[in-house]
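Pasting as-is:
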Amino acid sequence: EGELLRLAAERGTDEQIQQLDRIVTAMAESRLDAARFLEADLEFHITLAEAAHNRVLLRAMLAIRGPLKRLIANRTFRHVEQVGNLDESIADHRTIVDGLARHDPRPGEAALDQITARGVRHLRSLHEDEFRLVAPSAGPHRSSDPSRGGGNPS
């Protein structure tokens, strides 16, 4: 998405940037409603791809829409459960739009890094959850890393 962001800053029309702004407003209005937020978030990423005016990148974004929706949905619902709102994500999306309005991708790149980092942490937590489900009795004998409860017990 970094390339989409850079291209959107360069090529995005005022109308597309205004649409992204309206989508972020819809995200903010649904900050406690994960289902509504999810729809707005997906619309944001598709609109960002459209604003890049690159058919190949837009097609790639559309091709991954299903898996992206599942990942974002899982993360969004879990985040609302844990934190209670989606303010952090809304602020990052607002930063992206504010940068695009100035045709400057740099603020958005930093915000996108934050969004990506949260996504990576979420994927890791899913992996750890899956491991616990598959191997609930995994104990010290499974790891030689003392920080994970492995290694020499003495």
